Amino acid sequence: MTTTEPTTTHSADADGDAGSARTADLAAIERVVAVVEHSQRHKDPEEFLALFHPDAVWTTAHGKVLIGLDAIAAFTRKVLPAAEWDGEVTYEVVHTLFVRPDVAAVKVRQRYVSPGAESEGAPLYVMARQDDGRWLLAACQNTGVVTADH
């Protein structure tokens, strides 16, 4: 994982150690992405939806724009349980840019691997740390990667 340092300063945690605060934030962000992966593998819309800010914006890999948790929930509850793939899906954080101490742009590598086929996505998740310390998905763009053989 590559982390780009912010161009603005960020506040330190209670013991004055800004580095450990950043490390904790990166770990929390990676846990959110791990839950995205788990929810996709298990086709669990409720686990996935728990990761979103109520006013989130989601753009699917096919360009459908969903504004607000209600729209994201309606789409996810319809599509995710019915998704058909025979294989494995993985999500990996490949780059994190802290726009502010409580806002991060997170580039993810998404891979679907099945017998005889593989596809990749390059989602961008803008995440915001809430007052209670949780990181939630606020604005997301799910983009498919086009390869030379497609």
What is the gist of this entry?
The chain is an alpha+beta fold.
What are the key terms here?
single chain; 8-stranded mixed β-sheet; 27% helix
Description of the structure:
The chain has 150 residues and is α+β, with helices and mostly antiparallel strands. The protein has helices at residues 18-41, 45-49, 69-79, and strands spanning 2-4, 52-59, 65-67, 88-100, 103-114, 117-121, 124-129, 135-141. It contains 3 helices and 8 strands. Strands 1, 2, 3, 4, 5, 6, 7 and 8 form an 8-stranded mixed sheet that branches.
Number of DSSP helices? Answer: 3
Mean pLDDT: 87
The H/E string reads: EHHEEHEEEEE
- Report the sheet with the most strands, covering strand number, pairing sense and barrel closure: 8 strands, mixed
Distance between the termini: 28 Å
Rough shape? globular
Task: Give the low-confidence spans.
Answer: 1-15
